[in-house]
Fold:
Amino acid sequence: MKKLFGFIQKEFRHIFRDYRTLLIITGMPVAQVLIFGFAISTDVRQAPVAVLDYSRDVETARLADKIFASGYFRFAGALTGAGAIEPAFRQGKARMVIVFGNDFAQQIQSGQGFPVQLVADASDANIARLLTGYMQSIMADYLQTSRSFPQGVIPETKMLYNPGMRSVYMFVPGIICLLLMLLSCIMTSVSIAREKELGTMEVLLASSLRPVQIIFGKVIPYVAIAFTVGLVVLAMGYTVFRLPVAGNLCLLLGECLLYILLSLSIGLLISTVTRTQQTALMVSMFVMFLPAILLSGFIYPIANMPAPLQWLSAVMPPRWFIVIIKNIMLKGAGLAHVWKETLILAGMTAFFLTMSIRKLMVNG
Amino acid sequence: MNTVIHTHHLTKCFGTFTAVEDLSFKVARGEIFGFLGANGAGKTTAIRMLCGLLKPTSGAASVAGFNVFTQSEQIKRHIGYMCQRFSLYEDLTVAENIAFYGGIYGLSRKEIRLRSEQLYARIDLAHARHTLIRDLPLGWRQKLAFLSSLLHRPEIVFLDEPTSGVDPITRRQFWNLIYETAEEGITVFVTTHYMDEAEYCHRVLVMVAGRMAALDSPEALKRQYGATGMNEVFLALVRSEQP
Amino acid sequence: MKYALRVLFILIQKEFKQIFRNRSLLPVIFVVPMLQLLILPLAATFEMKEIRMHVADLDCSPQSRALTERFAGSPFFRLVNVSQSYAAAGEDITGNRADMSLEIPPHFERDLSREGAAKVHLTVNAINSSAAALANAYSLSIIGGFHAQPSVPASPAGVAGLAEEQFWYNPRLDYPTYMVPGILVMLVAIIGLFLSSINMVREKEIGTMEQINVTPIRKYQLITGKFFPFWVFALIDATIGLLLARLVYGIPVAGSIALIYLLLVTFLLAILGVGLFFSAISRTQQQAMFMAWFFVMVFVLLSGLFTPVESMPGWARGFNTINPFAYGIKAVRMVMLKGSSFADVQREFYALLAYAAITLSLAVNRYKKTA
Structure:
């Protein structure tokens, strides 16, 4: 035990001596959370929309006003005929064109129909979908209020957990998950690969320390660093991005710790199967980076993916942690609501740790 | 005497720390010049300045007739260097390493083939030409690294602690190679902290804490300090320099 | 001249040998990116396949059931539960079993027939605000349709909203077509960047760099020797990727193939320049790696590949003028999908060319043969 303690101390000293790397390790995630928290968003904001109005009556003007007052869309000009739509798209002047049919006001009043057509530039299918969705919801809202007296079914919508409809609620927790995982994974995998490359790993293995002790000695300093970074970025989420922490803070931190352990143990496994830092890095960054972004539900909701990809996403640790962190922070859920995800993360941690200890013993 | 290395008050500071101070000496063609000192005495700093890897802070020096301040690239054409750490690529074979180093000195394919055959014959390595350096014993690696640094027939070869960690028999063989090289007229500038090796040099320069403490042939030094071996000379010098 | 070329050749040959000898690295360079290209573009969609809906019907009348039926009949919604309790609905949303709930209060039918109007409540999990906005829009249009023609069931074709929608250039809203070229460009860039950023500093760490520095090799020769192999690898990857795009996703190159390669070659030069620059200024591989990682994360996520550039604040959009990924992805997409000519992408091309010139000269400049 005393030996282990000395070993951990040595590891800490190593890390703190190289303050340049330490600064990079801790400073970068903080900078990234700031950059992405502000920049990554799927909010529709001032999208250019042109209008082709065949009615030119009070109601189309009222609807257009409502649309352009929403802040989602920007008026990109009035078109004179259907032939003008193509050029508007090609020159990139408009993302979407609203076409009001004849006798708009009359058809609305009589309840005969809704003569509006939305023509979207769908070369980016995702943006086209977002824009038409927002537009439809403004139109539905318009129809509700356009009637002089309340009539029919009047829906009232409550936006739960995120009444301000802020994108940061979606993306900041995701970014935190992503960064914590990549950071922990890279730190560990590279540090062990480095010892191998410089030949010092053999010295360690030949020492009287047991493989388990070596692994703990290597991992514990990084747990401390990653957890500190985790605390800082969570605090930033709370102060800079005004994310609520509706649930139990201790539970949140505990889950963070579990997740960090899991990420470190993945890094550990990578480092035991690679010989050079180069390969360790390529595996931990390259193999993990894209799937972690795309299959974790960070940007694209998992429910929308084709079924095989949904299964594949089940092996991505951030997929589960994102659910946990959102549930605890935003919904205020307790362990009762996240026990399943927690269990999965714990299982993964146990699996990866056992695998890497085994590997190390065989090699050693 | 045909001087190939000439330094005059050569000094190198890193910030406030003076690694090498006021170094002045001459080395003649074909000489085996030993550079002695404890770890951290400034040997590697001095050798790196002479090889054009490090800009001196002050003083003057010329190597193979070129100024170390202004002509470091010309110097590099005329010297060979074997650095302290492994200078061979572990993931390349013996033949590939030779072809690589010969190639970047501009040797033709034919010359490389010819010289590598000579090299194999000289240290009996022909059987291992397709072995990865990683799988070669340390002694072989060091001998190979030395001969690789001679591929382009330099005027001077700098060896930085070439024998550290090598067994006594290989060290003996290594020194035989050094003698052969010097006989061909190539100057050998070698640093070491093995005092017995100092005896093999024509002249030795002893460095203590960045300064030159003595410069003479091993016999003359032993006589001067009334010592039986270079080890005693060295201890005497260290004691007198650091009271 | 002959000597200079020969030295270059020797350097390049050596790098190739080392890479081919590294058995664990090769699959990472060639197999992993292609697998990712095959799988990942399919994940990148905002399409709302099914919104999981909990209906809390406290009225239990024919009218309330008719409204519920309309949601059940819509292809956009899946009823996960129909209950008589608001609390149960809330519990399903908190437990992540439902995305939204429709709460129909008691006396819904009575109010509707007596007063001609009745309220219902929609509760949407709005953590993902854009998905919530879509879910809300779809629900409002279904409810709006119910008001207009309560007896007619919602059209099975699945018209999402009130207004008719037309999607030009891509009527089936096929998203991989748009994602594949972008992801392809990103993958080849990541390979090139990671390999080049580690390479020189790796030699520094191992110690062979010192040996190289003492040879009469020229700085530009070394840098060229270092980037050329990675350039080739990345281009091979790009070629395989273009073939996969064609064969698997059925995306042909609409424009000129030569133009695509011209763009990729220039783009990769810029990226490799960045990598070598990182390598030249770092002391350990770890430092170089973290810089490369930071660079990739920031530039990829800000390039608009995954989230729309329109949604970003002004400074982030301004930042994209120095983002090689933004130029590369945009230009390759234009040529691949729209068949743009050189004239259409020349702005991007020259930007990348300038980028390459700057980063490569920085790399040559920062690489010091003398300490």
Notes: Residues 199 and 218 of chain B are 6 Å apart (CA to CA). Chain B touches chain C through 32 residues (CB under 8 Å). Chain B has a mean pLDDT of 89. The two ends of chain B are 37 Å apart (CA to CA).
